[in-house]
Specification:
102 residues; alpha+beta; 4-stranded antiparallel beta sheet; 4 strands; globular
Length: 102
């Protein structure tokens, strides 16, 4: 089975306010987007399991014109807090790169 890194050549994460993280998945073609945008591996329950958050709070937005999927989830601790390890959330996408797509 291919991994997310194999089907989505550009993936980034960023802060989406002090309480949220956003991950952008850019597919390289409309065909790839059409094939994988509904894959169970990137749906809210799966993402919630990877990041340890409530699945009801994970939001997924599809942007067909850009061949992209945007995933947002609540941060485990507010940005800049005492336990902060990635202030700008720039490294959070790494945890999704090895998920297996179907």
């Amino acid at each position: 089975m291919p991994k997310l890194r194999d089907v989505c050549p550009r993936v980034r994460s960023k802060v989406a306010g002090p309480f949220w993280v956003t991950i952008d998945l850019f597919f390289d073609s409309r065909e790839a987007f059409d094939r994988y945008h509904d894959d169970p591996a990137i749906q809210p329950p799966s993402v919630a399991a990877v990041y340890g958050v409530d699945p009801a709070l994970v939001a997924l937005y599809k942007v067909p014109d850009l061949h992209m999927v945007k995933i947002s989830y609540p941060r485990p601790a507010p940005q800049g807090g005492v336990v902060e390890r990635d202030m700008h959330s720039g490294q959070q996408f790494v945890f999704l790169l090895d998920v297996e797509m179907s």
